[in-house]
Amino acid sequence: MGYFLYTRKSQEDEDRQMQSIPDQIRSGQKLAHDLGLTVVEEFEESRSAKRPGRPVFNLMIARIEKGEADGIIAWHPDRLSRNAIDAAIIIDLLDRGKLVDLKFESYKFENTPEGKWMLSIVLGQAKYENDKKSVDVRRGIQSKLEQGHFPHRALPGYINNKAEHTIQADAERFELIQRAMKLVATGAYSVPEALAVLNRQWGFRTRKTDKTGGRPLSRTTFYDMLSNIFYTGQMLHDGVMWPGKHPPMLTQHEFDRIQKVIARGGVMQRHHQTAGPSSPIQRQEFDYTGFIRCKRCGCLITAETRTKQYVQTSRTRTYTYYHCTNSKGGCSKQSVSREWIEDQILALLSRVTPSPQVALWCQQQTQGFIEQEAGMPHQVEDSLRRALANAERRKSNLFNDRFTSPDLISVEEFREQKEKIQREINGLRQELARAQERVEVVRQSVNNVFDFVVHAKYNFEQGGPKIKKEIAQRLGISYLLTLEKLEIVPHPLLVPIFTIEPPKSGSGSKKDGGFDTFRPSWLTIPDEIRNLAMNQNLTFEKIEWPLKAPF
């Protein structure tokens, strides 16, 4: 009589305590030797038996049908099957005499009606354990989600706290990834550019494990991260959104802006050279493309560079010119220089840039404003908390009614009401989280506005193309270009500052209308900006300044 030796080890949780395949092989070979059995062939498989369709198992069964072996050696019956279909196949082979014997290291089988009946019970028990573990896993996941904990392996930027079974920030990588994501949110950096800064300039490396890690973050992983709502502090599971307790990297507003950047794939324009007809057309990103439009036709403004050679001095100089793309036709392509555009932007920046003395005072006042705002009650939050507490009480009462008086409510009605209340609770938690985030965003927006007016003009004058573009995009929400003028609609949160006339340079006393007389006009500015941000749902994003303004 010939036997097939079958070994299986799943990579899933159910089999973590099961012997490895080499151990099963050694055990099966020893069992065959001790009993004097002939092993025709050995079959190894790393696959779960929860569902039918294992290719190695099916191949072994097909060869048994052909009569190539009469028996199977395995560690335990659950190595052969954990589902009803494969269990039925084994019993059927025994009933038809295709399979004569089964030998197990941890179970004794006899090919008798009683033996097959007991085997069917053991195989059924394996299926029951499989089903029960599946239910337990789902219940565990549901419980973790309700508590606000991520039920899976931590994503990049986070680590699993094995002691508390929670997710926490990776102290070494969280801030770096957050800064890279916020670069994309500014709109001044494409995804590949932000990733290059993260990996090359900041030296980011993934978390090192026994087999992987210790490498730069891949582009595919970074795109996946930028599109994952998890980084806003929420968890999407089976189509349901859950509020999480892990620290968010992004606000919802920043996340939405990133999705727009990803959708448009970055703004790239053509770079033209006039050195000769055979010069290749390269790709270049210009400082002010992507947000300035032609006032006449509404098309975006594009740019090109021209290199001019001066014969007398044998020197060359490159100029950048901006003009309408004329994509609708019929519009002029007359150009304006980059320097002309920058003069227009600087003129507006000068109107919101206070003197160094006032700038320092603004920063001090803003910090005090934020600290004061942090302790203020907020009616929307209080209302949501009361509604959430009420829903939690109704859920608790529902469970009490079910356990104390099971006849009053059926299982189906209990499940339906529980899911309905849970959806309500999830929705209220998300609204509360958004309300809290909104208050914090408003506080930070006030601070960011004053930080902008202190540092923007200096960094625009001294900085490179990236920071200039980012400043321009913060300064205005609309740019319309004609040959005579660049019309800039300023950000609404900067408008209150435009109404203040700056003091004369060098003023410092009440007599000459200096700082002491100027300061009262600024006292109400934080409240004005806060009210605008709250009532009109406005935000003002922070800029990471490469240079600190000297004052």
Sum up the structure in keywords.
551 residues, alpha/beta, Rossmann fold, Hect, E3 ligase catalytic domain fold, four-stranded parallel sheet, three-stranded mixed sheet, 16 strands, elongated
Question: What can you see in these coordinates?
Answer:
The protein has 17 helices and 16 strands. It is an alpha/beta fold and 551 residues long. It has a four-stranded parallel β-sheet with strand order 2-1-3-4, sandwiched between helices. Strands 11-15-16 form a three-stranded mixed β-sheet. Strand 1, helix 1 and strand 2 form a beta-alpha-beta unit. It starts with a strand and ends in a 16-residue tail after the last helix. The relative contact order is 0.07. Residues 13-17, 266-283 and 505-514 have low confidence and may be disordered.
What's the quick description here?
With 551 residues, the protein is α/β, with parallel strands linked by helices. It is built from 17 helices and 16 strands.
Number of domains: 4
The major sheet is characterized as: 4 strands, parallel
Poorly predicted segments = 13-17, 266-283, 505-514
Strand order of the largest sheet: 2-1-3-4
Number of strands: 16
**Total of helices:** 17
- In terms of DSSP E residues, the strand content is 5-15%
Helix content, binned percent: 40-55%
Structural class: alpha/beta
